[in-house]
Specification:
With 271 residues, the chain is of the alpha/beta class. The protein has one domain: Rossmann fold, CATH 3.40.50. 45% of the residues lie in helices and 15% in strands. The protein has a 7-stranded parallel sheet, with helices on both faces. Helix 1 links the parallel strand 1 and strand 2. The protein is globular. The N and C termini lie far apart (48 Å). Bound molecules: 1,4-dihydronicotinamide adenine dinucleotide. The site of 1,4-dihydronicotinamide adenine dinucleotide has 26 residues, from helix 1, strand 5 and helix 8. 1,4-dihydronicotinamide adenine dinucleotide (NAI) binds next to helix 1, strand 5 and helix 8. Pathway: Lipid metabolism; fatty acid biosynthesis.
């Protein structure tokens, strides 16, 4: 059910790779809620061609950009403002990639060139996007900027590898930029989402176990990509005008639960 929460708002959505992507669901919901936006992804991800289906469905223009390239981001903002006919009201950063994770490197045997790439793609890109948006005066007063994070920023998770450091930096960038953009009434937040079966998620070793464990521990169960999109829409809407510089857990209560009855029973029944 749509509520016209984003009627007349303009935005840029990063990171829709395929229909499982969290950004894909956000784009669908933003369209339903009356927003217009451009879609962007790394040129290499475009080759799969799936994003064009989403663009057609949402009436969006697709503009390729490697989120680590300042030149690509400059071009993206110039073209987005042209396509949308004005400044933007919301931005979604839904980008993550670690070459160390992808190539199966152990945390005790990291390739540091790749570590820097992980940080550049998964965290610094968020800073670059906001720096360029600010320099180009591309954001309307009251705009809302959201990036997606994961609890490994606060608590150690085996296998999450150097992405944990990237997420910690991402959350810190949200606070620092939220402070900076506050005078323009612009909000910057991160949403810390439950483990979700997407291309990025499945790249983490033992991911299916995380999903199962989190599902059992969370009082409300895991949050789906679609539920995450619903939450992000509220953050883009005018209903959350005073929420900024937060890392907002969208995880069914996982982050606040130490142990559940289900785990206690499972543990004692084995004794
Ligand atoms: P996904 O694989 O669908 O999306 C990741 C996106 O990052 C892809 O569209 C990919 O093309 C894009 N990307 C990678 N390198 C890029 C670059 N250099 N420039 C521009 N885009 C680039 O997976 P998902 O799960 O939708 O990931 C979205 C965000 O959600 C990521 O930040 C991820 O870390 C975060 N997240 C995911 C969780 C999960 O369990 N799937 C849990 C918590 C957070």
């Amino acid at each position: 059910m749509a509520y016209n929460l984003l009627k007349g708002k303009k935005g840029i959505i990063f990171g829709a790779l395929d229909s499982n992507s969290i950004a894909w669901k956000v784009a669908e919901k933003a369209h339903e809620e009356g927003a217009s936006f451009t879609l962007t992804n790394a040129p290499i991800a475009m080759r799969m061609g799936e994003i064009n289906k989403l663009a057609e469905q949402c009436g969006a223009v697709v503009i390729p950009a490697d989120a680590t390239s300042l030149e690509d981001l400059e071009n993206l903002f110039t073209k987005s403002l042209e396509a949308l006919g004005g400044k933007v009201d919301f931005i979604l950063h839904s980008i993550g990639m670690s070459p160390n994770v992808r190539k199966g490197k152990d945390y005790g045997d990291l390739n540091y060139e790749w570590f820097l790439k992980t940080i550049d793609i998964s965290a610094l890109s968020f800073h670059k996007i906001m720096q360029i948006a600010e320099k180009k005066d591309a954001l309307n007063e009251g705009a809302s900027i959201v990036a997606l994070s994961y609890i490994a920023a606060q608590k150690a998770v085996p296998g999450y590898n150097d992405m944990a450091e990237a997420k910690a930096a991402l959350e810190s960038i949200a606070r620092s930029y939220g402070l900076r953009l506050g005078p323009k009434k612009i909000r910057v937040n991160t949403v810390s989402q439950s483990p979700t079966m997407t291309t990025a998620g499945k790249g983490i070793s033992g991911f299916d176990v995380f999903v199962d464990f989190a599902e059992k521990l969370s009082p409300l169960g895991n949050a789906s990509a679609e539920e995450c999109a619903d939450y992000v829409i509220t953050l883009f809407s005018d209903l959350t005008k005073k929420v900024t510089m937060q890392n907002l857990f969208h995880d069914g209560g996982f982050s606040c639960t130490a142990i559940s009855d289900e785990f206690i029973q499972a543990f004692y029944s084995k004794k």
